Amino acid sequence: MAPLLSSLGLILSSLEAISSLHAGFSNAVIEQVRSNLIAIASQSWELGTAAEALTELDWPALSVFNASAIPPPYELDAANNASDVLKIATSTVSAKPSDSLALVANDGAVGDPASIGVAVLLANWTDSSDISYASAASEQLDYLLNVAPRTDSGAISQRSDQVQLWADFIYMAPPFIAYYGALQGGDNGTSLLQTAFEQISLYRDVLRDDDGLWRHVALGSWEDSTHWATGNGWAAAGMLRVLETLDHSSVASDFAEQSASLAQWIQEIISTAWQYQAENGTLLNTIDDPTSFPDSSGTALLASVTYRMAVYSNDTSLIPYADKAFQVIGDSIDENGWLRNTVDPETFDTPSAASSASPEGQAFVLLLQAAYTEYAQSVASGQVIPTSNSTSSSGSSNGDDDDSNILRRCRLVHRK
Ligand SMILES: *[C@@H]1O[C@H](CO)[C@@H](O)[C@H](O)[C@H]1NC(C)=O
Ligand SMILES: *[C@@H]1O[C@H](CO)[C@@H](O)[C@H](O)[C@H]1NC(C)=O
Ligand SMILES: *[C@@H]1O[C@H](CO)[C@@H](O)[C@H](O)[C@H]1NC(C)=O
Ligand SMILES: *[C@@H]1O[C@H](CO)[C@@H](O)[C@H](O)[C@H]1NC(C)=O
Ligand SMILES: *[C@@H]1O[C@H](CO)[C@@H](O)[C@H](O)[C@H]1NC(C)=O
Ligand SMILES: *[C@@H]1O[C@H](CO)[C@@H](O)[C@H](O)[C@H]1NC(C)=O
Ligand SMILES: *[C@@H]1O[C@H](CO)[C@@H](O)[C@H](O)[C@H]1NC(C)=O
């Protein structure tokens, strides 16, 4: 009797879990968001972020979240061609002057051009006929490691003209350094993986506050000590990409300790941030300043990290917050596929003007959809079992996830 009851309980909780899933954003919405992103992404960090978002959403087998993504195939199938990602790599490398080590010349930011480096490494790996990608990637690495200014502790500056650390750097440079190392293999590859981890650790030493949130900018001629939502998103999402790269590299077992640290450092950001979530699911631009304005960009990025971390750690306790965030992001995408209520990505502290959109915000919607898709697949396959609380979240819009619906699905299963 007991085993039967407990397996019935398991079936019930799995059904409850599956019934709590929503469908994600529709293909039509995602298509508009994607084409708007491609139309307006122009700055180095926007292009790097766009390339990553397109990889995760459209070519997930090639993203570091897939256990068999490293290394990629030497030749891409017609159906898995990563064409939009490789286009960003190709146009960047062909525009790069030969006297620039960085992928984008005279950018001012150290890390931002490197964000395109992951796509350039993918282009190199899958197109042996063109050596310009390999040299562009290795020059970019050389610039980061050997030319850019550093703090006394060794943290690579985010600015080229002074030593200044920005939370944004974590999404821009360490994922490239780690991917480079994972592809390179051998002792040099291992040492790059370690470098990616150490840079994160050095940044965290400077930017993290006691509650786990990160300040935006420290050192140099000016500082931004606020807990910027997008900055915390850059830090958490960048750490997550490095974590996945370490875990899916051939030397994952040597990095177990670093991986555990990264998972904890990501978790402390998201678990603190969601404590400040507004009633309708949004985060404020300065997470813990109630006088700040709502920001859908940072909300989307942190929600994407939250879905990914639930799969990574099999801990769904923050999913109700992510589901609420998902709902408000859906409500913030207008009928033409533009994410509204974003922070102006150039000022950091004012809302975007009514006439302008945030390229990074558009990319964060795609990252959110990709993360949610992986989460939903993990729940559907029984790999992750959500706490029953997620059922009551606002993620599914038509409100038919009540007990009678669960029972109805139960009966369907019993009939099989
Ligand atoms: C990872 O990619 C491989 C192809 O390289 C694919 O067969 C597999 O289904 C992917 N795994 C997941 C979890 O998507
Ligand atoms: C790349 O793949 C997409 C989706 O599978 C397909 O629509 C497109 O035609 C492909 N492009 C090329 C150049 O093969
Ligand atoms: C470029 O790709 C080739 C495989 O096609 C690989 O052997 C080489 O190490 C790659 N270079 C870099 C810098 O990743
Ligand atoms: C490893 O790095 C060193 C120093 O940069 C270099 O001289 C050596 O050729 C590299 N080894 C391999 C196998 O790439
Ligand atoms: C689940 O719901 C209960 C009651 O509403 C609440 O106290 C608890 O914090 C919720 N847990 C999560 C993980 O949201
Ligand atoms: C969410 O609530 C905030 C107030 O906390 C409000 O300013 C914002 O417009 C709301 N967002 C949406 C999409 O309704
Ligand atoms: C995740 O947690 C659930 C519930 O605690 C458990 O049944 C399941 O086996 C776990 N999955 C993994 C992959 O650890």
Automatic annotation (TrEMBL):
Composition skew (Low complexity), residue ranges: 387-398
Keywords per UniProt: Glycosidase, Hydrolase, Signal
InterPro entries the UniProt entry points to: 6-hairpin_glycosidase_sf, 6hp_glycosidase-like_sf, Glyco_hydro_88
Gene Ontology molecular function terms on file: hydrolase activity, acting on glycosyl bonds
Keyword Hydrolase annotated: yes
Domain of life: Eukaryota
Signal sequence residues: 1-17
Region annotation (Disordered) ranges: 383-406
Keyword Signal annotated: yes
Record-linked PANTHER family: CELLULASE, EXPRESSED PROTEIN
Protein name as annotated: Six-hairpin glycosidase
